[in-house]
Amino acid sequence: MVNKGFGLALTGIPTEFGDLAALDDFTFPNGRSFPTSYKEFVLTYGYGLALGEFHIYLPMGEYGDSLFVRTAAIKNTYIADVELGDIWFDIAPDGSPELLKRLFPFACSDNGYYLFWDCDSASAHEFDIYLTDFRGVGFRKVGRSLYELVDNLTGHHKACLPFSSDPLPRTFKCLIKVE
Q1: Domain count, the chain
Q2: Which residue range is the domain that position 108 belongs to?
Q3: SS3 letters across the chain
Q4: pLDDT class for 157, splitting at 50, 70, 90?
Q5: pLDDT-derived band of residue 135, with 50, 70 and 90 as boundaries?
Q6: What is the mean pLDDT of the chain?
Q7: What is the tens place of the pLDDT at every residue in 47-57?
Q8: Which end of the chain offers a freer environment for a tag, N or C, measured as fewer CB atoms within 10 Å?
Q9: Pair 14, 49: CB distance under 8 Å
Q10: Residue 3 lies in a domain
Q11: What is the signed CA dihedral for 105, 93, 38, 133, rounded to 10 degrees?
């Protein structure tokens, strides 16, 4: 089965969509809500593994894979160093200390890549998306929405994933929340 919005082949039946009230009601410090493409993704696919390796986190309360739990854990690995000007990882080609301070981590891959939103992006209903591995990839702008991210990582992947020999698969594997 392929969903036309993102075009992902679905394995399993989506059953876990997280906290839908938080999906609708959450606002970032600048007053903006979640991007439109993210909301559509969550409501279509829910909890699972996208593109063969990415966990796009959902609001799921205090669950270990919850967006808010994982965001805090990821941000805690680097933000104090950024604020002190002690950046120990490559931020080129698209990063800057100012950008790093405002990025919001929302996904992680099984291969050590992280995805971040720039909540101050110019688009009214979407956020620019950046990717890093905190090693050799630097910070790269990989899309202006989740739609564009999926297209870029499954098609024009060399600009986004320079060390990857093949594009990522257009797949989504449903996962079950385990308490």
Answers
A1: 1
A2: 9-174
A3: CECCCCCCEEECCCCCCCCHHHHHHCCCCCCCCCCHHHHHHHHHHCCEEECCCEEECECCCCCCCEHHHHHHHHHHCCHHHHHCCCCCCCCCECCCHHHHHHEEEEEEECCCCEEEEECCCCCCCCCEEEEECCCCCCEEEEECCHHHHHHHHHCCHHHHCCCCCCCCCCEEEECCCCC
A4: low
A5: confident
A6: 92
A7: 999 999 999 99
A8: C
A9: no
A10: no
A11: -40
Whether residue 123 contacts residue 12, with contact meaning beta carbons closer than 8 Å, is answered with no
Q: CA-CA distance, 77 to 85, in Å (whole number)?
A: 14
Task: Write b or e for each residue in 120-150: b if 16 or more Cβ atoms lie within 10 A of its Cβ, otherwise e.
Answer: ebeeeebbbbbbbbbeebbbbbbbbbbbbbb
Quick check: is 2 in a domain? no
Structure-block tokens of residue 156: 């024009």
Whether 92 is in a domain gets the answer yes
Q: For residue 44, give the amino acid letter.
A: T
Residue 165 confidence class, pLDDT cut points 50, 70, 90: confident
Assigned domain for 36 exists: yes
Among 133, 136, 153, 137, smallest CA distance to 145 is for 153
Give me the pLDDT at residue 68, please.
96
Task: Return the CATH number at 116.
Answer: 3.40.1580
